[in-house]
Amino acid sequence: VPTRILDIGGQTQNSISLREFPTGSHGQYAALSHCWGTKQTFITSSTNLVDRQKSIDFNELPQTFRDAISVSRSFGINYLWIDSLCIIQNDIDDWKRESVKMEQVYTDATLVISASRAISDSSGFLNPRRNDEIISISYGEGGKMPTFYLQQALQPLTPFADPLKSEPLHQRGWALQERYLARRTLHFGSHQIFWNC
Question: How far is the C-alpha of 110 from the C-alpha of 1, rounded, in Å?
Fold first, then answer.
């Protein structure tokens, strides 16, 4: 696992904390690939490091971070790496040490969660999609009519067609390593989710 990682606990846990692990520690974790946006609103710095290690309130986090925690928890993954929280942002020595490890962070992650459609940390990526792209089908007789929702047209993620190229995250050069070094990625796009393994 990386040097620092968020302990996000189980499904119902509201409190999160930043934990440090000795070099060579092993375990499953997810990593978030995201656009920060124009403001760095929620980071770890030398002034709040001790507080982050004690507790971080889920409800105070930006929406993209909350969405990533929800996805991680739904897979039973209790640890999440987010660069802006797991690297001390105002400590140049820490940044130099930890930034060179990002290749390993994304390669060793059990799952990389790509917030492809989110333009910033505050926007989130689990928002509803456009309704005109969804077909609803109801069936059954009597009082109960289950409804299923289907995407009108699914696009494959192939080397020849990249439906993610116009997403905000994939317009950023620094996100290239996060996309191509990850072993398993869930890309949350504007129109659909893509699984890449």
Answer: 10
**Residues 6+ positions from 184 with CB-CB distance below 8 Å:** 109, 110, 111, 112, 195, 196, 197
Q: Which secondary-structure segment (H or E) carries 56? A: strand 56-57
Residues 163, 155: contact at Cβ < 8 Å? yes
With CA atoms as reference, report the closest residue to 115 among 77, 75, 146, 70: 70
Tell me the pLDDT tens digit for each residue of 59-98. 999 999 999 999 999 999 999 999 999 999 999 999 999 9
Question: Could you read off the pLDDT of 35-62 as tens digits, one per residue?
Answer: 988 877 799 999 999 999 999 999 999 9
Q: Taking phi first (over 0 means left), then psi (-120 to 50 degrees means alpha), and beta for anything else, what does residue 14 get? A: alpha
- For the chain, which residues make up each domain, given as ranges? 4-126+161-196
* Helix or strand (DSSP H, E) at 7: strand 4-7
Distance of CA 150 to CAs 71, 74, 127, 155, Å? 21, 22, 16, 13
